[in-house]
Amino acid sequence: MSKGVTAGVIGLGSMGMGAAVSLVRAGITTLGLDLRDEARTAFAEQGGMPAPDAVTLARLSDVVLVYVVNAAQAREALFGPGGAVPAARRGTVFILCVTMPPADAIQICDQLVAAGMLAIDAPVSGGAAKAAEGQISMMASGPEAAFRKAAPVLEAISATVFRLGDAPGAGARMKVINQMLAGVHIAAMAEAMVMAAAQGMDLAEVHRVIQSCAGNSWMFANRGAHVVAGDYTPHSAVDIFVKDLGIVTETAQGTGAPAPLSETALGLFRQASAAGLGRRDDAAVALHLARQAGVKLPGDE
User: Which InterPro entries does the entry link to (predicted)?
Assistant: First the structure.
């Protein structure tokens, strides 16, 4: 059952894979593209169709979701040698799910429109677990025609699509605000858990109690669980927040808005990355702080 639309997903990382598998589960014919053999194999095992290249994916897809790491990778996948856009049919919908500076989102969407495509600026939030459940939130802006054509795809991968207007950039601006809060909250979680550990407190009890108190946040609940379990499998890596908080602080500088907490959090993530934790889960900033304090956290070898 194809629901009359074929989707392509470029980038099968934790979020892209979740979206691609959710599409397959919804009965939508889905192609997936990734440079890693293991990602393509895993997608095939879930009933998806690994694509050999971006050209093939674009030729066969009505809607293409882009889940690469940054704006440079998005441009390469779309417009570079062997990119998707020259091979796509006129009117194909491209959904940009990449966290990137608003100016880049606007420029890429404008290029897509100039090439005869429909574009939605739609960064996402919710983490790998929500992506796998088809329950992410999307901060999306673009023309009505694009949303209408992509409706079965958006329904399959998301719990909520926040429509932020017709103009590209609105989704990216909202994602900057989200990542500002997310990065600061992860840093605060790490600081709190290390302080608790330094006092000999039971981290599982701290995690349980704070979730019912005013100091809780989504990131404390989610990433604090990683610290308690000592599990730093990279669902979202430290280096992702080096990138994202870099976008946040650059945006703040460009607008003249003070961002002292974001700048401090960015410094912490940069330190953790320099200490060799860049590819571990972003909760590993707690490991970095714990080592500074001479405190042993679960999972630290």
Answer: 3-OH-isobutyrate_DH-rel_CS, 6-PGluconate_DH-like_C_sf, 6PGD_dom2, 6PGDH_NADP-bd, HIBADH-like_NADP-bd, HIBADH-related, LtnD, NAD(P)-bd_dom_sf
For residues 79 and 109, the answer to whether their CB atoms sit within 8 Å is: no
160 strand-pairing partners: 137
* Pair 105, 130 in one domain: yes
CA 284 to CA 273: how far, in whole Å?
9
Please, how many CA atoms are within 13 Å of residue 92, restricted to the half-sphere of its CB?
A: 25
213 and 148 share a domain? Answer: no
In a domain, 299, yes or no: no
Pair 237, 279: CB distance under 8 Å: yes
Over residues 79-125, the pLDDT tens digits come to 999 999 999 999 999 999 999 999 999 999 999 999 999 999 999 99
For 258-281, b/e burial (b = at least 16 CB within 10 A) is ebeebeebbebbbbbbeeebbebb
pLDDT class of 3 with cuts at 50, 70, 90:
low
DSSP letters spanning 183-235: HHHHHHHHHHHHHHHHTT--HHHHHHHHTTSTT--HHHHHHHHHHHHT----S
What are the tokens at 230?
């000592």
Asked if the structure places residue 71 within a domain, the reply is yes
Task: Give the tens place of pLDDT for each residue, 148-163.
Answer: 999 999 999 999 999 9
**237: three-class secondary structure by DSSP:** strand
Provide the domain limits for residue 187.
Answer: 173-293
Residues 69 and 140 in one domain: yes
Contact criterion met (CB below 8 Å) for 114 and 136: no
pLDDT digits (tens, 9 = 90+) for 167-204: 999 999 999 999 999 999 999 999 999 999 999 999 99
Q: Which amino acid is at 41?
A: T
CATH number of the structural domain spanning residue 106: 3.40.50.720
Residue that is last in its domain, among 132, 167, 202: 167
Number of domains, the chain: 2
301 occurs within a structural domain: no
Indicate if 175 belongs to the active site. yes
